[in-house]
Amino acid sequence: QPGVPAEEAGAAVAAESSTGTWTTVWTDGLTSLDRYKGRCYHIEAVIGEANQYIAYVAYPLDLFEEGSVTNMFTSIVGNVFGFKALR
Q: Under CATH, domain 6-86 is a member of which superfamily?
């Protein structure tokens, strides 16, 4: 979105695609989210494009079922493409 710093957008993508949600849910207090949250560890500008960035996000392996590419794909891509805060 216009006016949102790239670092803030990267952090929002990492949170939304791992442990973040806009809604308070009862399970929030059951576990330490720090162990499971995604982390945006690098952002770089797209050369020749104004306000376009590539964000690198790392996820803990515990978020995904072993050997399930479908689980990984829907967890990451589905959440990121459905994230209305980004354009």
A: RuBisCO large subunit, N-terminal domain (3.30.70.150)
